[in-house]
Amino acid sequence: MAKGKRSVPEINSSSTADIAFLLLIFFLITTSMDTDMGLARQLPPMPDENEQVNDDVKIKERNILAVMINRNNELMCNGEVIPISRLRERAKEFIANPSNDSNKPERIAMEIPYFGDYMVTKNHVISVANDGDTSYKVYFEVQNELVAAYNELRDQISREKWQKPFASLSEDQQKAVRLIYPQKISEAVPKTYGGKK
User: Fold this and answer.
1) Contact 38, 143 (CB under 8 A)
2) Sign of CA dihedral 87, 164, 158, 169
3) DSSP per-residue letters across 152-172
4) Per 3-state DSSP, what percentage of the chain is helix, strand, and coil (rounded to 5)?
5) Closest C-alpha among 113, 91, 102, 98 to residue 184
6) What is the pLDDT, as a whole number, of residue 87?
7) d(CA 163, CA 157)
8) CA distances to 1, 6, 12, 16, 19 from 9, in Å
9) How many CB atoms lie within 10 A of CB 178?
10) For the packed helices 136-162 and 171-180, what is the interaxial angle rounded to 10 degrees?
11) CA distance 39 to 42
12) Can you name the residues that pair with 76 across neighbouring β-strands?
């Protein structure tokens, strides 16, 4: 080695990959991931292969609340244009049919645990249809209002019977209340009828 020349130490590059790997793992663990949002819906059970499907069974018109959202995000309830703010009350009135109105779902006597014979609108259906150009915001607002209608009816009857909200009831009590107000929301496949205005 010549006098006055020093050797420069080299950086050990074999650990660079290890450091990059550890940093990657660190960021994967500490970063919060966005979770997908969706609607909680219970699908009907699969039909039995041996069971014949009866196409003649039709739902009576009075048992259907038709909720439609057009491409301009306007809400129609049984053909009448209404603001979303009125949908919850309309749905509650339809689901419960307290006055036994002949234009609303027919009431049927059912044996309900804790309640005995109780008049329910067992065959009611809320049918939701929307245009393919409907905004997600309006679509979810409509869904939220419909679910809120069921929740409020269930809370109301729970407070009347047990003086506590539906969420605080036992599992058996909740099942009984669900028999009185079963959530029946049917969704049609979105269709596009033309571009936005």
Assistant:
1) no
2) positive
3) HHHHHHHHHHHSS-GGGS-HH
4) 40, 15, 45
5) 91
6) 96
7) 9
8) 15, 9, 9, 16, 20
9) 14
10) 110
11) 10
12) 68, 81
Q: Are strands 75-77 and 64-69 parallel, antiparallel or unpaired?
A: antiparallel
- Alpha carbon of residue 74 to chain centroid: 20
CA dist 107 and 33 (Å) reads 47
3-state secondary structure of 103: coil
Beta-bridge mates of residue 69:
75, 130
- 63, with CB counted inside 10 A (0-12, 13-18, 19+), is middle
Predicted model pTM:
0.70
What does the block give as tokens for 107?
């009431």
DSSP 8-state class, residue 31:
S
pLDDT tens-digit profile, the chain (197 residues): 556 677 777 766 667 778 888 888 888 888 876 665 666 555 555 555 665 545 444 568 899 999 999 999 999 999 899 999 999 999 999 999 999 899 999 999 999 999 999 999 999 999 999 988 899 999 999 999 999 999 999 999 999 999 999 999 999 999 999 999 999 998 887 776 555 44
Q: Which of 149, 152, 146 is nearest to 166 (CA)?
A: 152
